[in-house]
Design brief:
membrane, 228 residues, alpha+beta, ACT-like_dom_sf, Putative Mg2+ transporter-C (MgtC) family protein, two-stranded antiparallel ribbon, single chain, elongated
């Protein structure tokens, strides 16, 4: 049986850990923030504690069931909560990192509830480094290799295909596309692309303006308006 001091310590520690991870998500205005991560971590810890002590028979000193069965349901069950944080707008998907952080928090909660402090604390450190430090690193790396092309055009059939064909002619790699409809007639496309080193930007801009229906092209902070 787990003593009362250990129960209190594990629940409080899991709340602190969940709060640290949730605070980072909250600061970045993500769907699941401080409270959600705390609840997931503490709930997982409690379930693990129940798994450890709930099947213990004090009279015989034996476990009457399988303690792992209750705790194992946390991993599959947390998937439903994580799915609620994933949002899809057009071709753009957001919330995968938050869903993953909830899943990891559930795992950390189970580890702390089982008294596996080293694994839980080290995992927490890795998660925080990944969410905080690697975010800046990722942006710096992507900034040197990718740029976002913003195109406003008529919402006509085939215009995205025409743009894609031109990008292919210039050997421009497409990393991501996000489409936003201003209304039924206007569409704005945000295309994250990797430019080849030998590209002639001015020539590329002139050719993309030749595509029927394009009003404006934004490339980083530069704006190239079509003359219509």
């Amino acid at each position: 049986m787990t003593n009362q001091n250990q129960i209190i310590l594990r629940l409080i520690l899991s709340a602190i850990i969940g709060g640290l991870i949730g605070l980072e998500r909250e600061a970045n205005n993500r769907p699941a923030g401080l409270r959600t991560h705390i609840l997931v971590t503490v709930g997982s810890t409690l379930i693990m504690l129940v798994s450890i002590d709930g099947f213990y028979d004090v009279t015989t000193g034996l476990y009457l069931g399988d303690p792992a069965r209750l705790a194992s349901q946390v991993i599959s069950g947390i998937g439903f909560l994580g799915a609620g944080t994933i949002l899809r707008t057009g071709s753009h998907i957001k919330g995968l990192t938050t869903a993953a952080s909830l899943w990891v928090c559930a795992g950390i909660g189970l580890a702390i509830g089982n008294g596996y402090y080293l694994g839980g604390l080290v995992t927490t450190g890795i998660v925080l480094i990944t969410l905080v430090s690697l975010r800046s690193f990722e942006k710096k790396v992507l900034k040197t290799n990718y740029r976002t092309l913003e195109i406003t055009a008529n919402n006509r059939p085939g215009i995205i295909g025409d743009i894609g064909i031109l990008l292919g002619i210039y050997n421009i790699s497409i990393k991501d596309i996000f489409l936003m409809d201003s209304d039924d007639t206007i569409i704005t496309a945000f295309i994250q692309i990797k430019l080849p080193s030998n590209i002639n930007i001015n020539e590329f801009i002139q050719d993309i303006h030749k595509i029927d229906g394009i009003f404006q092209i934004g490339f980083a902070e530069e704006q190239f308006d079509s003359v219509i």
